[in-house]
Amino acid sequence: MTTKTATCLCALIILLTVTGCGDSTPPATTPASSGPQPVVFTDEGVPGAIGMGMRQVLGEGNAKAAMREDKDGRWVILLLDYENKYYQLDKGLSAADFPQLETAGFRPAADNIAQNVLLYRNMAKRAMAYTEGSDKLVIVLCPKANWGEVKLFWPAKTK
To answer: How many angstroms separate the CA atoms of 24 and 72, rounded?
Structure first.
């Protein structure tokens, strides 16, 4: 087992301990509406638990999460500090669902970044008790210095 793998496993154990599997605290969410709404990152509820777990791996202040619920499931966006601008969308989503990403210079995560993104995705899925087929997870990587410029909107439609 490598040091990186051991660190990630320790962070996952801390995440599961902190979030408390089966916690019945209602999530902090952005309600769905008929038009695009701005994404608001929070430290409350499920987004807070996801962000806390990511901060265990990436360091304090290096992760944010937001969540929106609609009748078909939950949408979660995870914003992580990274040296370049990348994103990774869940299955069934396309760049057209978040056009502001490409407009702001974000690119789909390259293969050499995919392993790290997969780790973050798996940690987030576990923290939110992800439901395949209804929940959607979007990972956005960006230098923390540029976070103030990241203006995201929830898609008006559901998938």
So the answer is: 20
C-alpha neighbours within 13 Å on the C-beta side of residue 127:
32
Query: What CA–CA distance (Å, rounded) separates 140 from 65?
Result: 10
Structure tokens belonging to residue 110: 């390259």
Sign of CA dihedral 118, 86, 74, 51: positive
Query: What does the chain come to in residues?
Result: 159
In the DSSP assignment, the letter for residue 59 is: -
Pick out the chain residues at pLDDT < 50: 1-30, 32
Tokens of 120: 């973050």
> Where exactly are the structural domains of the chain?
3-149
Amino acid 79 reads L
**pTM reported for the whole predicted model:** 0.76
